Amino acid sequence: MSKTIPSAKDRFYPQIIKLVVPIVIQNLLSAAVNSADVVMLNYVGQSSISAVSLAANYASILFMVYYGLGTGASMLSAQYWGKKDLQAIRVVEGIALRFSILISLCFSAFALFAPELMMRIFTNDAELITIGAGYLRVMSLTYFCWGIIEVYLSVLRSIGRVTASMALNILAFTLNIFLNAVFIFGLFGTPKLGATGVAIATATSRVAELAGCILISLFSKDVKLKLSYMFIRNKLLFKDFLRLSLPALGNDISWGVAFSMYSVILGHLGTDAVAANSLVTVVRNFGTVLCFGTASAGGILLGNVMGENDMERAKVYASKIVKLTIITGAIGGALILIATPFVMHFADLTDTAMHYLKYMLLINTYYVMGAAVNTTLIAGVFRAGGDSRFGLICDTVDMWCYAVPLGFIAAFALKLPVLAVYFLLCTDEFVKWPWVIRHYRSQKWLKNITREDLFAEEQK
């Protein structure tokens, strides 16, 4: 043991940095792509900002679905990569693609044929419904591409191919920003399309990103993007995928839908609250890229190590990852604090919305610490060992039994001021800290989830 642990310490930082830097850049660009719509619509008007912000909640929910499926795939792929079993990884990718494509088609149908109904869930403002419906109708075209992209990139990240994901995000970011400018400002003789133009820009960048995935796949020597993987059958891996992925998927959907309820609550408190929250979300996304990147990199590294069955090294890595997360969470909060005066200077909102914006940003300077620790442990450390059930139970109880009911009571029963309601909603991450930290210390998540002789039965 004395030889293993120092070795783990020596190897940890080079390995984590190699993974963290591309993932942070990728997350930064991803946040920029998602946030560019809101920032550039600032030049169109507050109604467009509010409508797109509300409509984007569906993309957030869908992202949680993809993230859950990708987590199931990456949990297995990371450990099988540590075991050097490429065939198992291909089967896992195919299983995840089956689910993601089916779900994408369902979302696309709703967004294409019933976008007004989808908008009415978040607001009763007729103008916002009209703008948001036009945005959703165009965005329906992107969901099929997005589902394939997220699964493939999750598998690539799980085997350490994080640079490829970063390159694709650079492509998507550059194209999205350029086309946003074209359609918002009417460059090169194009009409000024406002929110609809933003949707067209996003859709085009997703198609380009999928084309990039296909190109990377052509030159990949290990894991390729092949729809034919969907037809490879293995009962044991399918069973493992469902056992690991369904709780992760349920966790992410439960959390994502509950978090979108925050927008429902704020959406019924007026457009000023919605507009302020949309800009706060942009800033918070940038403030959390470093700590969330550490969580993702840590999960990949731990999965590889546990797949090698080196549990002593995994314990050391987990401890280091938690310490790094606390540091990066503090850095994220400081970045939001530093950004606050700049955001206040450039934002073009009503006086009431500006008042909300200032104090919402200040609340998020400490909120990111709670989110960083919980994300690292639940979505990084625990899932690396195949423990996705704890997160499902913990987040569901926290969000649906505490945060969402508290928000509705505060807003509509007690009729508290907007900022008081927002402050109460932002206590959700800290309420679950004791249970999350206790589970981490129990080490029940420390498991090798790979199997031996997976394909022996097929070969008979």
Strand content: under 5%
Low-pLDDT stretches are 1-8
What's the order of the H and E elements? Answer: HHHHHHHHHHHHHHHHHH
Alpha-carbon distance between the termini?
A: 41 Å
Describe the main β-sheet briefly.
none
Structural class: mainly alpha
Total count of domains = 1
Secondary-structure topology with pairs:
Elements: H1 4-41, H2 46-82, H3 86-113, H4 115-120, H5 126-139, H6 143-158, H7 162-185, H8 194-219, H9 235-267, H10 271-287, H11 289-307, H12 311-346, H13 351-384, H14 389-413, H15 418-425, H16 428-431, H17 433-442, H18 456-459
Can you give a write-up of this model?
By secondary structure, the chain is mostly helical. It has one domain. It is 82% helix and 0% strand. The chain contains 18 helices and no strands. The protein has helices at residues 4-41, 46-82, 86-113, 115-120, 126-139, 143-158, 162-185, 194-219, 235-267, 271-287, 289-307, 311-346, 351-384, 389-413, 418-425, 428-431, 433-442, 456-459. It starts with a helix and ends with a helix. Mean pLDDT is 86; it is low at 1-8.
